[in-house]
Amino acid sequence: MKRSEPATAPETSAARSTPSWEHGTFDSPGARKALAGFFVSGVLLAFPGAILPSWQYHLSSEYSTIGLYFAGLIAGVLGSIWASPPLLARRGIGWTLSLACGIAAAGLVYLAFVPPPMAHWWRLVGLVAIGWSAGLLHTAIFHAISPMYRHNPAATVNLGGILFGLGCLTAALLISTTFYMTTPGNVQIGMSFIPILFGWMYIRSKFAPAPAAHSSPSMSARGMISELRTPGAVLLSLVLFFQFGNEWAVAGWLPLFLSQRLGISPATSIGMLALYWFALLVGRVAAQWILRRVRHSRLLLGSILASVFGCTVLIATDNRFGAVFGVLMLGAAFAPVYPLVVERIGDRFPHFHPGFYNGIFSFAIAGGLLAPCALGYFAFTGASRW
Asked: What's the whole-model pTM score?
């Protein structure tokens, strides 16, 4: 009697259509390259806070103008939400990533030719372009890394956060180390080569086809906003909104604060901004190890108390040692909050929806930039009263 072959489950169309690299952790070359785009995003969004002393704003009290610069970044980031889905649907992920990098490089080169004493409106145009390119970059990245996110949500987004912090650190280091060596315009032209190189890499890389959902209403800005109305998404978005606000309030104004309050040289104050980004970056890497060994409620409470103490030291100090201690304390205190929230997002929303997480991240970035923007107007109001 002929032995029957063991029955096998029929291959479904979904399994046939799923690329083999989606079943690995970081096996997709396109997804890995796209994730590296967070480094470019960090360079772009950290640029305004680091360049302000090079534009001589530490010698003036034009606080409302500085607030306007950050408002321009916010307008660019939010404006990209409406433009990104059609571009992804028509041209694909690789072309969209390259376009974002090209606009970022053009914005940096443009700003090199409109320094003070030219009217600040000229620089505002360049900052809007940089914010728009960063928002477009985020949308394309989140769609490209969806296979990695499905396998390990927390690890993927935490790695993106680390790369973003590395980009912020790079921007501050480039400007601080070249402050007395060359003109701000040359520095900005040099920084433009970072997005140019990434754009060249993206245009030559292959990415998985963009999902058909790009063209559906759920992927539109209105659909994304409707998804953010769920209670869990609202709470997590608000946490990131205020946490990024804390981080960027320091990042946007730290060099000017140190120069005007303590008389620290511009190059040194930008170097302390780099120290802040370094403490934040190292803290986030260390938080991956700490999260498995410390109760999360205790870690969050300790982070809050340490950040309050760091702010108090930074405000009360009258010397460089106190400033360095306060900066390091703030960076280390802010670091664990982002991994905590990302872990909760991965647990609560395990089924990745690119537009959904891009909405949360865009909302958080807007909050981060809104804080230094509001501080500019508050400082201007206070200075005008005195």
From this structure: 0.84
